[in-house]
Amino acid sequence: MEIEHMAELMLSGSTEACWSKVISCIEAGRNSLYIYDQLLTPAMRYVGSLWEQNLITVAEEHLASGVCDTLIARYGFMVKPEQGHGRRAMFLCVEDEHHDLGIKMAASLFQEQGFDTRFYGRNLPLEAAMLSAMNWKPEVIGLSASIVYHLPKLKDYVEGLKSLSYRPDIVVGGRLIERYGIQETLGDRALFFPDLLQLNHWLMHYGAAETEVLYQNMG
């Protein structure tokens, strides 16, 4: 299968061979969502499943992650973002969370849609996140936590960032949403997207929803 082959190439550190697959997708007319959601994410999930079964070493998992990280960055340089519209979005992983590939792809989708983005990456303390948000005031703040033990921290981050006076939209992504139903715990304090497809759908309608509200207020 294509996904398993992609994962094997990542595990062997074959960056150029992996990049050739990305180029093939581009030449076939595939967009960023396809490359992120249908190629890179499934390949890394397959790598993760091998690690969970003790079929690969930690070093091999790190190697595959490094290759994927390189592909995301390399592809990002090729993508021409839409004209900026003044909206801002910041992205980060909760403290002690070191898996940031998914939220990095999410940040790339926002940047492609004209957002001014800041990617803070893994392991950002809540105090630092809140200070950055207060100073920069992004309309959207994306959070990621991939390990169940980090769910209490994720709740603290959502509640802390949602308490900011300017009320940003808090976006939470990852497989934990489907597995543990965290949206039931946090209710309407955040928006939850288990995959990039659903996040992208919301993103594509984000500006349109704001415009509709503006027109309603003017009417």
UniProtKB/TrEMBL annotation:
<dbReference type="GO" id="GO:0031419">
    <property type="term" value="F:cobalamin binding"/>
</dbReference>
<dbReference type="InterPro" id="IPR006158">
    <property type="entry name" value="Cobalamin-bd"/>
</dbReference>
<feature type="domain" description="B12-binding">
    <location>
        <begin position="86"/>
        <end position="213"/>
    </location>
</feature>
<dbReference type="InterPro" id="IPR003759">
    <property type="entry name" value="Cbl-bd_cap"/>
</dbReference>
<dbReference type="InterPro" id="IPR036724">
    <property type="entry name" value="Cobalamin-bd_sf"/>
</dbReference>
<dbReference type="Pfam" id="PF02607">
    <property type="entry name" value="B12-binding_2"/>
</dbReference>
<dbReference type="Pfam" id="PF02310">
    <property type="entry name" value="B12-binding"/>
</dbReference>
<dbReference type="GO" id="GO:0046872">
    <property type="term" value="F:metal ion binding"/>
</dbReference>
<protein>
    <submittedName>
        <fullName>Cobalamin-binding protein</fullName>
    </submittedName>
</protein>
<dbReference type="InterPro" id="IPR036594">
    <property type="entry name" value="Meth_synthase_dom"/>
</dbReference>
